[in-house]
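Sequence decides. Consider this:

===
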Amino acid sequence: MTDFSVETVVIGAGVVGLAIARELSSKNKEVLILETEDDFGKITSSRNSGVIHAGIYYPKNSLKSKFCVLGNRLLYDYCKKNHIPYLNTKKLLVASSLDQIKIIDQIKNQAENNGVEGIKKISKTEASNLEPLICCEEALLVSSSGIVDVVSLMRSLEGRIQDSGSMIAYKSEIKKINFDGNKFLLKVMNDSETTIECKKLVNSAGLFASNVANTIEELKKEFIPKTYYAKGNYFSVSKNLGIRHLIYPIPEGFGLGIHLTLELDHSI
């Protein structure tokens, strides 16, 4: 027996889930967001540096490159229209040794192929003029990078979703999902067990997306990606060093390397 029926269910009220739900609901689609926590963005979305990335690293025509380049522009536009605090700080990608200069050239070419605007290779003197504390051989200036107040962004998205008549159900844990070829049936536990029917289902559960996918009995396990976890650490600097740009090393291996990001008050 179905307790509730809706056109689309979005699982996860992080920034991705909220953005998807906001876009759907703005087009008069009936949307319900299900979130395990008691508020939005409590896992990953509130535990990041809030960088607005430019899309310089990803392979041409990949979804990451397309979404990042377009999303960069759309996010700045949304922040301006909805009074979300942000800063277009720009980013310096620095070559700390002579043998890294060729990698700077490769990344610049990749960025230009991806359609990233405002990319400029600068000398060590030009980099030092921008940031006197930098010691490098050359750098790449990425003009479209910046930072955003992620919590304010999510709060705005939540408000737009609710204003459109869609709903967000917090403290709602997915227990089981079935698909009969036409619709999804979700067993959800909040105060009591509820059965929800929907035609479309969006899995934006972040770190737990694979777990959610595994609850869909009809989905073959070989189609469910394995989740690989990584832990990062943040350190803050109490002294005001006058840094005005995001500063990143040449990426190596698994991640982007140890990088310096700013808060909206320019603290590190």
About this structure: The radius of gyration is 21 Å. The chain has two domains: 4-47+151-223, 51-148+230-249. Helices lie at 15-26, 63-82, 101-113, 124-130, 150-163, 209-214.
